Amino acid sequence: MTGDKIKDYLQECYPDEIDNILLADGLEEAFLGVAEVFGENPRACYDIERCIEVFMNDGMSVEEASEHFEFNVRGAYVGKYTPAFMFSVESV
Predict the structure, then answer these.
(1) pTM given for the model
(2) Antiparallel, parallel or unpaired: β 31-35 and 43-47
(3) Which residues are within 8 A (CB) of 82 and not within 5 positions of it... i.e. 6 or more apart?
(4) Domain boundaries along the sequence of the chain
């Protein structure tokens, strides 16, 4: 999905939260949608395997991409709107 399509989706479905929902830079291809949990803030949700594939497409090995994802992406807390990451059922 392109960045513009993601922004259009957020504007249409989450107009009151569009300025709060944080997106992971460069991982548009891995964007799944917005995760919601009662009592929590909505947050962008990404497919973990697709995130790793994006890094591999940038020239990293699978080990480098996995480590980069774990340390720099999933391990980065940026507040109550920090994106969520999940493994899709297709990868199990």
Answers:
(1) 0.92
(2) antiparallel
(3) 22, 43, 76
(4) 3-91
